Amino acid sequence: SNLMAAQMTNAHRRFLQVLMSNGITEGSEARKLHQHCCETDKVYYAHDKLDDFISTINSHLQPLFMQIRKGISEDDGRAHYAVVNLAETEVTKMASDYTEIELELFRKTMDLIILSENGFASSTDILNLADQLKTKKMKKKEAEQVLKVFVEDKWLSEKNGEYTLHTRCIIEMEQYILSNYQDVARKCNICHSLAIQSQVCESCGIGMHLPCVRKYFRGQTEPRCPKCNEFWSCDTP
Questions:
Q1: What does the pLDDT read at residue 65?
Q2: How confident is the model at residue 186, as a pLDDT?
Q3: How far out from the chain centre does Cα 139 lie?
Q4: Beta-ladder partners of 157
Q5: Nearest-angstrom CA–CA distance, 11 and 45
Q6: Does domain 91-172 have CATH number 1.10.10.10?
Q7: Residue 5 CB neighbour total at 10 angstroms
Q8: Least enclosed by CB within 10 Å: which of 4, 47, 85, 151?
Q9: Which pLDDT score, from 0 to 100, does residue 91 have?
Q10: What is the pLDDT of residue 15?
Q11: How does DSSP assign the chain, residue by residue?
């Protein structure tokens, strides 16, 4: 295919290596890295061509069932990039890094977060699960340590004792979450990526990320749902 005809240069390889070792890279960092890789490799650099640069890498990753994916931080709406292995689900990918009991705690935490109203689970609720695990019971101290590791490894984010899914987790596990939580998982009506922390229309049930809500309703005196046009009853951030 002519996509494959676009040569994978050393600049592309270097960019991919850094992305893989970072786990997840914020948009402005990815743009700096793009420039740095092109200049180091003395290849043509255009500041608005990052997406094309990534498409070239993705065309070469395709036969390996891998892809660089772009996602949005639910916190501030910024773009992030992560390398996703399409051949593995979240669980197989994590299985090489964590024990069975740690994975069970993660899955249970994920349930709490995704089934919650606001996309968060309190540490109290998560720690209460620790002694109900099927694999074996986990002491609270031990569970606290495991949660800490999940935060360090960028699967979870924590703010004031409340946990949610990290942007990396959302990018890498989007398919897994959409197929395993079909009844509750929804995509944002504005940016079309998975929305965990979101506001939901009381009339038609569509969801929107908080940063997307903020952008969409900016300057509107009476916010109305982009889909059904009913009054948006949530407090807009």
A1: 87
A2: 87
A3: 29
A4: 164
A5: 10
A6: yes
A7: 8
A8: 47
A9: 61
A10: 97
A11: -HHHHS---HHHHHHHHHHHHHSSEEHHHHHHHHHHHHHHTT----TT-HHHHHHHHHHHHGGGTEEEEEEE-TTT--EEEEEEETTS-HHHHHHTTS-HHHHHHHHHHHHHHHHSSSS-EEHHHHHHHGGG-SS----HHHHHHHHHHHHHTTSEEEETTEEEE-HHHHHHHHHHHHHHSTTT-EEBTTT-SEESSEEE-TTT--EEEHHHHHHHHTT-SS-B-TTT--B--SPP-
The maximal CA–CA distance of the chain, rounded, in angstroms, is: 57
The CATH-assigned architecture of domain 185-236 is: 2-Layer Sandwich (3.30)
d(CA 109, CA 120): 10
Residue 170: is it exposed, middle or buried by C-beta count within 10 angstroms (0-12/13-18/19+)? buried
- Asked whether this chain's domains 91-172 and 185-236 adopt the same fold, the reply is no
List, run by run, the mean pLDDT of 10-residue segments along the chain (237 residues). Answer: 67 95 94 96 92 94 91 91 80 79 93 91 93 86 95 94 94 88 90 90 91 90 92 85
Sequence spans of domains, the chain:
10-64, 91-172, 185-236
d(CA 217, CA 120): 24
Q: What is the pLDDT of residue 121?
A: 96
Q: What is the pLDDT of residue 88?
A: 66
Integer angstrom CA distances of residue 190 from 34, 91, 123, 214:
27, 29, 31, 11
Rounded distance between C-alpha atoms, residue 225 and residue 233, angstroms: 9
Which distant-in-sequence residues (6+ apart) come within 8 Å of 100 by Cβ?
Answer: 135
- What pLDDT, on a 0 to 100 scale, did the predictor assign at position 2? 47
